[in-house]
Amino acid sequence: MTQGKADDDSAYSAREVMDTVSEMSKLLETGLDSGTLAIAVKLCELGVNPEALASVIQELRREMAAYNAGGGDSTT
User: What Pfam families does the annotation carry (predicted)?
Assistant: First the structure.
């Protein structure tokens, strides 16, 4: 197999994995967009504990909801 073919196969496999992760995310109604999912997957690949990452995401959502409920503007 040539290097170009291997790279193509690797890229295709990565897209397949992200498509599957994205579909699972939608089924589980996580509310995470594809960019956020890609970051989460990369962090897990780098060794971040998935449960700890999930806790951080949940805490950030709570903080953002509290901020927005207090009249904060999340666009600035």
Answer: MOZART1
Does residue 76 lie within any of the structural domains? no
- Angle CA 40–43–47, to nearest 5: 135
- Which pLDDT does position 19 carry in this prediction? 93
Instruction: Give the pLDDT band of residue 63 (cuts 50, 70, 90).
Output: very high
Residue 75 belongs to some domain of the structure: no
31: in domain: yes
User: Distance between CA atoms of 17 and 36, rounded to whole angstroms?
Assistant: 15
Average pLDDT over residues 31-38: 93
Q: Is residue 17 part of a domain?
A: yes
Question: Contact, 40 vs 57, CB < 8 A?
Answer: yes
Give the integer Cα–Cα distance in Å for 65 and 76.
15
Measured CA to CA, the distance from residue 25 to residue 31 in angstroms comes to 7
